[in-house]
Amino acid sequence: MIRLRYTGLCWLVLIVGTIQKLHAQQFDTTYISQFEKKNVVELYPGIYGTSFDFKDRTDRRKDFRLVANSAAFVGGYINYKWLSAKYAVYIPGTSLARNEKLRFTSFRFRYSTRHMMFHPFYDSYKGLLAAEGTNKRRFEAVRNVSIADAGLDYYYFFNTKRYSFHSAMFFSEKQVKSAGSLFLMATPMWQRASWKFGAAPVMPDTMTIQLLTRNPSWLTLIGRVGYGYNFSFDQGKWMVAPTFMAGGGALREIKSDDHRLRPVTDVEATLNAGYNGSRYYVFVAGIWSHQHSDLRLKDMQKRDSELTLTFGYRFDKLK
Fold this sequence. Notes:
about 10% helix; mainly beta; single chain; 3 helices; two-stranded antiparallel sheet
């Protein structure tokens, strides 16, 4: 029995190794080049925004919006050999409601090969903001509301001989000549929205209150088709890299008597542009996404946006 298990393990390792070799397709060096210095340290200031719109299918006057207490932030990132670490803090006085301290937690992990990228994530908003009346610049805190999601973004790129998504997204390679690629993206995800009982003066819509007090949670699977293109200038020293993806899928509510699959649509766009030198690099990164989930009581639309400016430095292994 032990020998059979060991033999099966050997075959598994052999198969995985063969698949990795097949996917380790050699890139065209006239289009893509790698940097000698693999270790990097980055500084990145930025700003983000997130909103949740609860849409009524028959009467738009009953629509209701909650927003995150968005703020500017500054962070640092280091990648040395096998170690990667990233941390960001918010800049005081830059949030939408400066006197409110609402909790936003986010975790990210990234692993990539020449063809694929895996991106597990977790986001949690404990407390959100609602506009006071018709004034969209003054907000009231809704502390008893929380929204969270966790999942995995999986990317598969096709034209990796000439197109480098490592260059487009992270400036970790050099796109010597302009090229583009079609790619696929799949996201299995768990989501939850909840509202603890209490006064809700900023929620006149009873349907939204009914939705949140049921503490709904649901499983979602989204598939997308996208295209990215790296515009290269001066042998890759300067680059503009837009990507666009769109798709849809289905969700199923967990705590509900109605187990029907409901539709989900998603659109995302990114734009990175900057200088990609052998020792220093600097680029602006913009991200925008819109996800529409058809829940049983009301539709929920989530909009995310982020703008960052990254300063990077490449260095050799420490002696």
